[in-house]
Amino acid sequence: MFAEIGVTARAVKQPFELDGLTHLVIPGGESTAISMLAESAGLVEPIREMIANGCAFFGTCAGMILLASEILDGRDDQIAFGAIDITVRRNGFGRQVNSFEAEMVIEGIAGPPMVVAFIRAPVVTRVGADVEVLCEVAYDFKDAHVEIVPAVCRSQNVLVTSFHPEVTGDNRLHKLFVEDFKVGS
Fold first, then answer.
1. Average pLDDT, 10 consecutive residues per value, the chain (185 residues)
2. Which of 2, 24, 67, 119 could be stapled to 83 by a disulfide with Cβ–Cβ 3.0 to 4.6 Å?
3. Is residue 156 in a domain?
């Protein structure tokens, strides 16, 4: 996605690979596995330092979970970096079979609605006072009630989404992250 918008990106698997970065993406995947890998690779404290120093972060799906201040239905030893003051429920939209696509109008994104994929996605259950909700989604939960919940949140240099923007090939959120999220802003 970043290559499409002319931005060089690199994978980070070891602490020294964080050197010189001003922006970091924590992607979707399995949040407990990412948490354990970050711990075993020695990335937890360097990432905490980057958060404290104002590095820009973009978390999608599992990345949202890890950047949240509180995780519901996670493991007791799961990392919550606390980069954004939200509470999330892991797999809040349901299991893999409950995955869905939705058209989203996102504040700050010009053009037609984005089509995005919610795959075993987290649900934001609480938003802190300093968090801006850029988009919400209506979802029909299992007990037949529809709730409108945040799907994109922003606070200072942190952008998080419940969904995977890369799955449907729309790079506008990636472009927003690169252009609008500056270190120290």
1. 89 94 92 93 96 94 96 87 96 81 94 93 95 92 78 96 91 91 56
2. 67
3. yes
- Please say if 61 is a catalytic residue: yes
pLDDT of residue 143: 66
Active-site hit among 23, 55, 135, 164? 164
Is residue 38 in some structural domain? yes
Assess whether 174 carries a catalytic annotation: no
Strands 158-161 and 56-60: parallel
The CATH number of residue 156's host domain is: 3.40.50.880
Could you give the CA distance from residue 93 to residue 21 in angstroms, rounded to a whole number? 33
- For residue 73, give Cα distances in angstroms to 17, 78, 105, 146: 31, 10, 29, 21
Q: What pLDDT does residue 183 have?
A: 56
Query: Number of structural domains, the chain?
Result: 1
Answer whether 0.70 is exceeded by the pTM: yes
Residue 66 lies in a domain: yes
Of residues 61, 135, 153, 174, which has the active-site annotation? 61
Domain range enclosing 47? 3-180
**Domain assignment present for 170:** yes
3-state secondary structure of 177: helix
